Structure prediction request, 1465 residues.
Amino acid sequence: MSIIPAVAIHQLEKSYLESDQKHHIFSQLNLSIAPGEFIVLLGRSGSGKSTLLNLVSGMDQPDSGEIIVNGINLTRLPEHERTIFRRHHIGFVFQSYNLIPTLTVEENLLLPLELIKRINSTDRKKVIELLSKLNLSDRLDSYPDRLSGGEQQRVAIARSLIHNPDLILADEPTGNLDLDTGKKVLELLIGLVEKAGKTLIMATHSREVIGSADHVFSIRNQQLLPSNDNL
Amino acid sequence: MTSILVRANRNFLFQHPWQLALALIGISLGVAVVIAIDLALESSLQSFQQINQVVSGKTSHRIIARDGNLNEKLYTQLRVELGIPNLAPVIRGNIQLANHPGEPFKIYGIDPLIEDTFQSTWRLQTSNQKSAISLIRLVSEANTALIAKVTAEQLALKINDHLAIATPKGTLNLKIIGFLNQNSTISSQILKNLMITDISTAQEILNQPGKLSFIEFMSEGNNDKRFLESIRNHLTADTLLITSENQIQSMRQMTKAFNINLKALGMLSLLIGMFLIYNTMTFLVIQRRRLIGGLRCIGVTRRQIFTLIISEALFLACIGSLLGIFLGVLIGNALLQLTSTTIETIYYQVGQVALIISPEQLGKGMILGIGATIFAVLPPAWEATKVSPTSSLIRSQLERKIYKFTHIAGILGLISVLGGVILAFSSEKSIFLGLASIFILLFGFALMIPGLTVLMMKLLEKISNHFLGILGSLPPRMVGSEISRTGVAIAALMIAVSATIGMDLMVNSFRQTVSDWITTSLRADFYVSALSNQSSTQKQLIDQSVKDKINALPGVQMLSSVLHTRIISESGLIKASVFELNNKSQDGFIFKQKIDGNLWQQFEQRQTIFITESFAYFHELKVGETLFLHTKKGHQPFKIIGIYSDYSGDQGHIAMTRKWYQQYWKNSGFTGIGIYADTNANQQQLKQNIQKLLTPELTLKSNQSIYKASMEIFEQTFVITNALRWIAAGIAFTGVFSALMALQFERIKQFGILRAIGVTQRQLTLLIMTETGLIGLIAGVCAIPVGYFMAYILIFIVYLRSFGWTMAFHFNVSVLFQGLALAFTAALLAGILPAIKMAQTKPAEALRSE
Amino acid sequence: MNLKPVALAGLLLLISLSLFFVGPLLVTDSPDHSLPGTTSLAVLSAVDDQFEKVLKPRKFTFPRDHGAHENYRTEWWYFTGNLQNQSGRKFGYQLTFFRYALNRKNITSISAWRSNQMYMAHLALTDVENKRFYSDEKFSRSANGLAGSKTNKFKVWLHHWSAEQQGAENSPIHLTAETSQFSIDLLLQITKPLVLQGQEGFSQKSSEPGNASYYYSYTRLKTIGTIRVANYFFTVSGISWMDREWSTSSLSAEQIGWDWFALQFSDNTELMYYQLRRKDGRTDKNNSGAVFLADHSKIPLGPADITVKILDQWKSPHSGIAYPSHWQLSIPSQQMEIEIKPLINNQELNLSYRYWEGAVAIRGSKKGIPITGQGYVELAGYRN
Prediction:
């Protein structure tokens, strides 16, 4: 475990305007996550789970406070730098899979790699390997809408890991899946992340993952509090 | 339909003001252009009729002279010797106001004492006396005139004030003794810059004693047959009786080609406008799949959904058409001056013109706008009814269906293209069918666009994937996969660009042909020609004495001459050019048939004529046939021995030698004299010597300056065509813009994902611009063959039928590149705004949107 | 004289009013179109004093005086007649040419249309059997040969309508005029010589000097020829009357109209009488006439010599104007007592200038002997 936290958040303030009224989402929020930790975020819909993930990924900016990921202060970076940072260090898993419909499964996986460097045959091998791990070898050339929800989410997980990011952000990854499939997908995600030794922040309702989590937080009163349900 | 249902939709509409505005623009511009052209052209004709109503009233026949000048004694003979009633003598001309020299003013001399049953407008006028008295004063007091109130107000004149006009003998003051009354049937514009005087006053002002411009006859009772018979028997070889109906008809006929060609351009605008409407409505339907699905869930029937969409379209159509009508009137007003100038130079004297708007025309515009909208909305409306209440179709499923549709569309397109080609070549002489075939072709090509695009994109994707990676392959994939949106944009752009290419090629070919023709025709070193006399409608002619003096100048090798006149043939008044040619000027004729050695000898020695290509086409005449002409020695046969190229007018004319003309018609002057200098003569000196012999009405021009002037006229005739073409291109641009806006709007989430996985703003902008650039390129590439095809049909079918002209096809590569560049630039420009908008959307927000 | 024309000073205007007011559109905005407006008169009389005036008798020379006297403002050639075909079907006709000088300026112009002489012609036909009355009018300037008169022989014309002497003096006069509805084509043979009306052809119309005309007549013209009504042609014969008169002014402000009688009796005598109607209703002392005997002698008549009694009236359904329609005429000095009745009541000319001019029949006695006759009566200046 390194001294530098994977994610450090200091005095985070975030609000949004709705018809001239300021609504606070976070105020004076602090958080520190060590590398390799698995963090679960609980909270009602609209409590700000997704917003927190967006802030950590640099897709959104706070009103004030600091977000430091891997020792890089995202709040000080311009938009372009944040994007470059994201493509190297962050892997995303969304509730609604969000694969690019015009790309095949393989291409969806290659895209994050391509953004970083020139793709070579090793990369392709890597993709095939990963997909076979996910039991998707036969879906290499399929377009996403030919796949089931579970399959799509598995591809999405693969996409989030393919470029070897430091931090995986998962936003309700099972939200659109049935219980059984959801369970399998979760197992897969957690297993792969652990094996790779990556940091994972997952926003979810699913209590089944709580057991495997290092920390469980819930967002209440614009703060991040350790969850009582942590049994 | 419940009001809540309507509101649910309405709210949706207003949430997309861009799309709404663009759809309205599509309808409005299309309607506006069609209306504007219709109004402008009809107004020119109507104006002519209204002037007739003002000057002559209800007439049924007109007696005209072939050279435009009737002897006034004819009127006396008809009235006194033949006892023919209901005749109205008229002399007309142009005058200049002393204080407003540039402003054209028409003078009409009438006889106030003719039967009042003519009910001409000049009888209704206001003055300080009773109408009748001031009409009598027109006769009894010299230099009195009636003008319209509008004119008087413009010139700040009251009754009994004087209006100064410029005459060759100096300024003349005319006393305004009354105002022409405006009434509902006559546009005030028509009465503007128009003056009514007694015949005597007009003859004095125009310095045309003894002349009338025409005599009107009003048929009234059962004796008319007898009267008409005796008029006819009394007419000489130089006079002709025509019915007013006939006259209007022949004017219509004359401008028919002009009319149809312009209207076709208007329809082109509307066709492209329809793409815009289709695009918007499709967008609105697709965007609302969820809403519609929801509505279906709660029990809204398919029919209700259909009605909802259609009524929405109807609402848009009404507003759009109304806007279009309003806009159309504005554009029509601007076009009117252009069209009437063109008509006036090419066809006939219109006189004063005014935009005359009839409710029928506006109704036509409304129906056209609404009809086009509904037609364009039927597919998306039908589509909307198929949204099932349970599953809302995902986009790609829809696209797959559309993929299938591209095949059907492609096949239909191919059939249309074939049909268009068959129609083009089998439609005989009809200009309308010729143009219709172009429309069918365009439509067919447009239908083939989606399939072609998909094919091309597949190919491009492979290439770009190889060289540019996955991100690089995205633009062609996006174009191909969302063909329902991109296809429409590409088709609209392709049509506009192909029209541009087609017309450019046609105009270039035409220009080249005309240029060659003028160069060939201009054989002399100098030309003396008569300016058209300002104060009369007649062209001044050059005297024989002038010609003799020029001939006697040192350095003059020889002369040629031409007299442009009109002759009466079996089919009415025809134009004739009477030549005195020499061996050099003979080379200026480009014959359309093989000529043998003694052609010129026959032309000079025998009773023969040449006819122009247009004349041959319209009168269906061939070499070897005979034309009968009215001469002072009765009807005489003239054998046609040659057909030659001439692009100076679209009705064509005949050509004969002066020798034969003088034998059968009264001797007159020359319209132009060609001067051939000795090879060693000092041209500059000669020019000065000739100039000294000329009166101010005569001009001396070198062949280069005539060439230049002719080409300028040529360019002028395409001013309107060009303007309309750009309007069509503008609508197409709006269509592309609208389609791209809609497309990118739908993809916002996808862009969010890309941004999430690390695609930068710049990369995204580039991605979108590449996609729109591709759209432009496909449109441009497809437009090239289509434009070429169109040019071919325009040149060899439409223009041949319209004007009887054959042209050589001059292929011009730069036109093709320009078209390609135009399409590419237009699409790129249209893509800039959506690209920037999309790139600037925060990825977090983009991801949240559905 | 028939005054008819006389007052015509007004009539002329007619020219103007005439036609122009007839246009349906114009009628609406000029309700008083039957009356020569004073404005109009003023305008056209502005140059009145430039015309020559009829101040004293003159010597007539023919055929010169059959032609126009353009120095005088107005002039007319007036033909009326009673005709019948072989089966006795009766017709009346009127053909009149009016000349009116718009001013006296002599304008020189390059245009043959420049003229200040206006002509108007009226043509009327009475079809007694069908009780139908037809009328029509024409106008033209005297220019470019469209209308005019000759001084070397009797000839006056307006367009195709004309009155022209066939040969030398006293040869028949040929009248021809046609409209789309009816036409006349008649030969008028001079059976009694020309008579000078008034004082040797000088006819005073009111007391002011110059309010007078030169006036002569052919009182008995034996007529043969053809008339056409619609598409039916009739060969007719009968007796016509011609009046020639020119003047510059005639009526005074007091005089509002006139009744004119031109009567031809079965005993080869004729009578002309006009009475001027005054605003105050009194008999005008300028009323005048004459009896022309079979021996070509003339007995002048003044207002004291004659009484005219109106026995009946007829109201025009067209104009609403009431005209006298039955008269009793007594000339005690001639022991003449006659009654005059129109052949049909409706002989109102609804032209630019409206008046009543119609064929009449006469019954009565002269010197105790029954007498019959025919003629024409003109009633002018009547209003509602």
